[in-house]
Amino acid sequence: MGVSVSASTAIIVAGLFFAFTTFYPVAANGLDRVSDAQHGINERALERQNTDFVVTNATYNTSTSNLTVTAANEGSIGLVADDATLVVGNEYVDVGGRNATTTVDGDGDTALWLGDETLTVRVAQGDTATTIDNGTRVVLVVESGVRDAATVTEVSA
Asked: Going by CATH, does the domain composed of 53-155 fall within 3.40.50?
């Protein structure tokens, strides 16, 4: 009876050791993934908190049929102008695409929109299915999800 009990105990201990060596890496990897996800959530929340911009002007020039949206970056985060999204009268306009041109403080060669700089987005009427006129609402959304809106005013110059 002594040998069989010792052998059974050895088998049970070996099984527990095998189960633990299988369970530990799985648990450690799961904990790492959860920690990385929480870190990412905190980073995105901090980015949203430090992002601040204001759409200062939205004008539609009736003589050139161009919509011009001007926004000032008042936050401490640098933004990428081409990653922004413009919604004109419930229609999506890809700011980084071919339907819109962007300039940052008058420079059309850069897409980096830093603090205290002004972004200007120009969209031609023909590049949107929406009829742009006085009172059309435009919404500018940056990559962190922060947005600001303005109402279009018509000018003829």
From this structure: no
